[in-house]
Amino acid sequence: MAVSASKEITYVWEGTDKKGKRIKGEMKASGDAFVKATLRRQGINVIKVSKQSGFKSGGKVTDKDVTLFTRQLATMMKSGVPLLQAFDIVGKGHSNPAVAKLLGDIKADVETGSSLSQAFRKYPLYFDALYCNLVGAGEQAGILDSLLDRLASYKEKILAIKGKIKSALMYPVSIIIVAFVITAVIMIFVVPAFKELFSSFGADLPTPTLVVMAISDYFVSYWWAIFGSLGFAGWFFFYTWKRSEKMQSTMDRLLLKVPVFGNLIRIATIARFARTLSTMFAAGVPLVEALDSVAGASGNRVYYDASKKIQSEISTGTSLTVAMQNAEVFPNMVLQMTAIGEESGALDSMLSKVADFYEAEVDDAVEGLSSLMEPIIMVILGVLIGGLVVAMYLPIFKLGEVVG
Fold it and tell me: What is the pLDDT of residue 52?
């Protein structure tokens, strides 16, 4: 995969949200076009984008940083520490200067009269609609500490499930890349050395050897085209994936159909859907409004579209269970648990149980996948590398038989 060579620059932007309210923030990107595209996807009408003046040091703000900050803020507020003092403690104690600056900016907004949720909404790259809605609900109900605690637990669970999915996918991908590099090295440097040796034999070479030598000749002649094409294809794929909704939808549908991995992604997405909806509903956010955040947090275009369809049907009076059934992407167990939750008035509790169940399923699937992939990858590598070695040594074995 190609990595962009351009250095990321911090851009300062101004715009208006869906309600016409003026907001501003900053974002690290390789160009202002990327900043504008990212903000538009978040529903922000961009007014101005400019490079930040002066030199800024420090890393970027990650999901892990936001999750840790949320947990720290919740803990301190539950302990009776005032909000502004809590921001001071967390900001000054953070090792990442980018996080410290972000928290300082949010604290300054709160000090000038903004509510905490309004301050968070100015930084949509770090605090999504779900985060801001829950904080806003906590402020209105006077239970901000409890909502922050619930939000921290939610983000910790979502972060954990994302990490498990990445670890499950990273292992085979990294092995495939290493196998390709090793094969390329053998084809470009090792096989030509054997070819010179075999040219002095004056005998017919076995078919496997001839095939490997032909592939090696192609690698030696066109290595620049092979690596260049793969690099460009990787860059173009990820560039298009980030910017094209049609591409995202197509790839997400294909991912769900991939053997073994598709089922893992599906159950992880269902767990995220249930966990998000449970958290929002328990916080008192209306169901139709909550489904906006659920759609954005699903992480898969298929379930994003399904959430929007469910939201549309619920707004016309359809029950959640029937709307989910019509979406045709949820297992019977999820539908039955949702129906029980609606009938008993404990929808948030039932959805939380669904999330717990599927998160446990993800754990089991990742463990099973790890134990399954290891021998499969070893066999593939053995056949690939072993086949190349045998193909190169066949003429030597044949020569030994003739001499003997």
Answer: 66
